[in-house]
Specification:
Helix content: 25-40%
Number of helices: 6
Strand order of the largest sheet: 3-4-5-8-9-10-11
Length: 205
């Protein structure tokens, strides 16, 4: 397995996206099947696992916490915040600092870990200045609950504003033969700022 530099980490060039074990396309595996898959992936050299609080509303994180916590030092863990189920049980983009902090605390419990290596702002809440959202994540870095900060699906302008608030380690966006949007500006902006670009759905889902 080839490796890539991701901020302070070295990760397998191909990571394992953990969305489809709790939502997404086709039938869902049992928790035991998902746990076996995660361990087999780790055995085969995959060392970058990507999940999110909204994947199955915590289900994906819980499976990782149950089946991989005993091998926590063997992989780099990424999760995401910023998409939240509100009191009306409606899923919404919410980047308020108190919501991000609460989401992180809940994710740490589900993941059965003391720290998340890369924590993405899953989507930007345009009702909240990005400086406030990234500022909240920077405080989580200071508290030792996350190591680095990323953003998923952002513009070059928002990335620059975020990076000026706290160094951004990674940007994650869809990039495939069918989706070339990052080539317009994002790849060049990441190169300029020293931010790693992490493509998702490279085989177009």
């Amino acid at each position: 397995m080839h490796h890539r530099k991701l901020g302070p980490f070295s990760v397998s060039a191909i990571g394992l996206g953990c969305m489809n074990i709790s939502m997404g396309y086709g039938s869902l595996p049992s928790d035991e099947e998902a746990g076996a898959l995660f361990n087999q992936a780790l055995d085969n050299g995959y060392t970058f696992f990507d999940t999110a609080a909204m994947y199955g509303m915590g289900h994906s994180e819980s499976i990782i916490g149950k089946y991989l916590s005993h091998r926590r030092n063997d992989y780099v863990l990424a999760s995401k915040c910023g998409i939240f189920r509100n009191e009306e049980d409606v899923t919404e983009v919410n980047g308020r600092p108190e919501v991000l902090k609460k989401t992180c605390e809940e994710s740490l419990q589900r993941l059965n870990t003391e720290v998340i290596d890369l924590y993405y702002l899953h989507r930007i809440d345009h009702r909240v200045p990005i400086e406030e959202s990234i500022g909240a994540l920077s405080r989580l870095v200071e508290e030792g609950k996350i190591q680095t900060i990323g953003i998923s699906e952002t513009s070059s302008r928002s990335l620059r504003r975020a990076h000026a608030t706290h160094p951004i380690t990674a940007v994650q966006s869809e990039y495939s033969l069918w989706s070339r949007t990052p080539e317009r500006k994002m790849l060049a902006t990441c190169r300029e700022l020293g931010v790693t670009f992490v493509p998702f759905s490279p085989l177009a889902r």
